[in-house]
Design a protein that fits this description.
By secondary structure, the chain is an alpha+beta fold. Among the domains are: 68 residues, no CATH class; 104 residues, no CATH class; 94 residues, no CATH class; 327 residues, no CATH class. The strands form eight sheets. The chain has a five-stranded mixed beta sheet with strand order 12-11-10-15-16, with helices on both faces. It has a three-stranded antiparallel beta sheet with strand order 1-2-3, with no helix packed on it. Helix 9 packs across helix 10. It is extended and about 155 Å long. It starts with 9 loop residues before the first strand and ends in a 14-residue tail after the last helix. About 8% of the residues have low confidence. InterPro entries: DUF6589, Znf_C2H2_type. Keywords: Metal-binding, Zinc, Zinc-finger. One of its GO terms (molecular function) is zinc ion binding.
Amino acid sequence: MASGGLSTPRRLYSRSNVCILCNFSFIVTEINENGQKIEKKLFHEKYKLTTERVIAIRKVIPDFKTVDDTNNGVCKKCFRRIEKVNHLREEAKRHEADILKSYSAVQSVSHVSDISNKRLLRSPSTPDPSKKKNKQFPSIELRHLVQIPNLFAHTSTQVHDVRPLYSQPTNLPDMSEATIALPLKIIPTQTSIKIDNAPDFKSAKRSLGFYNQEKENQNSSLKDGTVKVSIYYPSGKKTSVITAEAYKTICRALVRGTDNVNIDRTIVQTLCKSNPMQVVHGTAGLIQEECKIICKRGTQTLFQKKGYDDFFKFNWDHMYNELKMMCPSMLAIISSIVSDIPPSVNTKPFMHIMVTAAIGLHGRSQEMSAIQYMVGFLLTHGGCTQRDIERLAKIGVCVHPQTIHNKLASWQDKLDLEILSIRDSWANGGTTKYQLIGDNWDKNILPSYRTSDQKTLSLHLFNMYAIVDRVPAEKNTSESFLDVSDLDLLTFIPSLTEQKQLMQELTFIFATSVIQNVPQIGRLFKKIYPEHLNHTYSDYAGLKTAQYPLGIYDCNENKTQEVIQLLKELSDKYVPLKDGKIVEPVFFGGDRLTDERIQGAQSAMGNADTAKEKLEGFISKTEDFHRLMNFLEAIHKLTYNSGSGNDPCTAYYYRNLLNMRNVKGKVKNSYRPYKLLYYTILDAVLLLMFFTYFNLADLDSDIPIPENFEDMDKIKQIDWLDTICRNILQQFFFENNEDICHAVREVLSDPEHEVNYWTANLEDGHVKCHFCARTYTYVGSLKSHEMKVHGVQIKKEKKKATVKDQDQLQDYILMLFKLTLLHKNLDTAVDMGDGERCVRSTKYELPIYNKTNKVKYVIASVHLTSLISGVLPGDQSQSLISNRFVNVQGGKNNNIALDEHLEMLNRDSKITCTGHQTKESIIKHSKEYAHLINYIKYFELISGTRKRKGFHHLPSYCEDVRKVAKDLLEHSALKHTINRKLKCKDLKIDRNPFENCVSGLSSMIHRHKPPTPFRRLRDKHI
């Protein structure tokens, strides 16, 4: 079955735009698992090869050459290394020159004495220069002060404003009557006043000769970058000279800056360099205020919401947006710790940021524990011990294990809340229905110290889940059942019409296999050949199903009394009732053992008064995954034997050839490895048949395609391939006959045949004598009567006669091919959600089960065919056919059987219960497992966790198929060779697998035809 799966992510590096020194690619293309291409250009890391850079490189690499017509360059890292090498070389040369110069000077001096004398700069009488006081001007300043009674009375110009060059507060005192030391120039309105640094008056300082020196000192002080700041208060001006470089930078930013953002950034950067701890203390205060607000009780943040719906609606984006809105400072600090660039959602750095914030807030307030609950759920699901969870809770990673269990225990009512709502709607005439699926849950608990009292504890519990029907059934008002005697024996084997449908289904499988394994055909048809074989319920096959785990029950299905108690409890809870009467029975699926135990419990309660007390609220049925497994067991019994290793082209021979060491033991314990082996052989046989059809002896030869193939439309192209596959199947599968089951049909349709002799006169539950009018309840009594009274001799079954000139290898290959193809037909029917094909397949399985003595599944096949052939009303029969699958991920080819999904739940729950080592503990917490499994799936969804790779995507599968096909071709397996024998005598060799399988078949059908959907046990009279 072709299906589009996820591919392995890849990264492509461009070779046309790289670093010439380290081959680093500046253009990287990432292809994700969905095939989407994301191109990243890293040109910020690239330097062009300019002339200066080439010269610098050639100083290190003399034979370096460039090519003009390429886009290559040099990365920053490599060029910095080149510059460093050149710099070190120049520095080394400089040091070498200095040393040589110094050495030359020393060698040029002639020493006449052994002592060298050098005079210091100061004599001992010179005072310490540090004690000198450098004064640029005298300490006493003399000025001529002038009294001006009215400043504006001495000018004829109308003065509106007197402004200095610098900014001045408006609340300065009135200067009209003042004694000033600096002269002011009177200017008209809108004329600014420039105040020079040097005074205009002739002061005593100038007359004393100090003015020029002070002017020079002032000019020199202004030139060295000194900053002077004046602040005007109502009481006067305060001036200060800024000497610290950090403060100078801040003042310059205030004067030069035009943008407040740039000014603030400069101030903060300056403070971070000069006094970083003050910045840290200020930031800490901001974060404290933010955390106080978000941790306040009753704020209803995501960290405080710990309800059932809150956990299953949690989203990392919402958490990030909440932190960004309420704690931007804290989020920025944590983000800078984790990553230099803002990480994208669902990446590992993003998760680190979120969890770090959650742990910090949880340390401030115990109410902020939503993330700690989530971590606790993950640890509990993974089987972490209670003690380890306590240790992690101590450091704030999660909450206490008892807190986790209390939370999960409070959710038990929500486990089946939706199912109970559907039940009530169903009881009131609603169309939405559901089924229950159950299976045994077995586990062995090993003691820490094995003693006579402490042995291995073997638990036998029962796990269940409910699934809502995906396909609505048409309402049927009739409640009458078909009389079982009206079911003919031929109803249980495929009719000619059904075999025509089988031809279409096998043609699809054949064509799909050829497209997958022949590259030439794959290129032509992979994009046009359908991946899904349409059927009645194809529109529903791609819809996701709603399933609800119901937990583990303390019930051993091997004990009828416990099964009865379980069914009573389930009847009260999940069977739709109205006025105490059953509105409609609920299907209860499982394996053949569960089906049999439920029927046994119903039979034990058959004498009760009401239908509810008789446990008729459930109709048991066998699911498809166990059918697939048992059908493969039957094929294995006919075709697989470890003694056939020396026989070429046998299943065990190819097991060794392909080195499939996991194919061992029983099929039920290694179902998927066995299935892979048989599917590999099947595809190889189909491949060889396809090349044989074109008379090609080499598997690498080209298939002859029609000349006008490209001009055909898609329908005609597909029809060309289907016609070839159909012709091959008609030759090898049906052997050019219309009926592959003709041997079984001839026996079952002949009442006089010895197989049907004792059941031919069955009437009203009694068997009639063939020679007189007497009737008997039991077939055994009839046999004794006819043997004693009428002298009837019972013929023993004759051994099968050997066929002259038989080719055992060819017959074996064709038998294996037919059986495996039928198994794959059922397997693909399950994948595609084709319920009609699944129930039709049971008619092909029945003779094979009878041939291999698999009695339980002979009974299951008879029951299933009877239920859909009239024992059930029309709507229930339709529901039984259409609603047989679970679809978790969506997609028309992604369905699985109901019991297979339950096997997956069993596996997950056994992992989850690792922390519980007693039966009481497991049962006590059993309702928690379903919640944990559901939450883990939701957590993987919101966290973008990559799904586990499927089993079907095997990289060597096509190579194995061709390897087997070449081996079959070498041994001419499809060509008839007279008297070719197999050494192993334990293999069944029937060219047609439906031959030699009618012994006792009619008696089994009559014995197990169910009169009602309930209590479908055998008829003891037959």
